[in-house]
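---------- Forwarded message ----------

FYI, see the Ribosomal RNA large subunit methyltransferase H record below. Original note from H. follows.
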Amino acid sequence: MKIKLVVVGKLKEKYLKDGIAEYVKRMGTMLPLEIIELADEKIPDNASEKEAEALKKREGDKILSRIQTGDKLAILAIQGKLMSSGELADFVKKAEVYGTGNLVFVIGGSLGLSDEVYKRSDLQISFGRMTLPHQLMRLVLVEQIYRAQMINRGSAYHK
């Protein structure tokens, strides 16, 4: 099994790239992490609700094209389930032990995720009610995935 992170938008800030690269490197001996960046749809100024939904659907189709049958899908959604690091570790462990595919985490674009992605998801995770920049959220999620693996291996990192 592999852990995949499917994200909409390109990472721009060097300090975020460096932080993510460090955690990816640390995970090299555990469950490997693959990051798949998808191009975001350009949102015209004053886009109508119908146009925004069409853009969100196109991004959703790109996301779903990267999900395989048997993959366990966890999406980040502000209205999702609040979880502790331990609960996330349990989710990762169960996917590792009982899964038939990969464990895929998704961070959508600025418009959010399409209904189709929500319907396909196995878990919706919230990191709180605050809005965080998607690029920063990517670093936070990668750190939490690393932390989950360390918890599952009995490491002192979590303490």
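H. also flagged this: The chain has one domain: 3-42+56-153.
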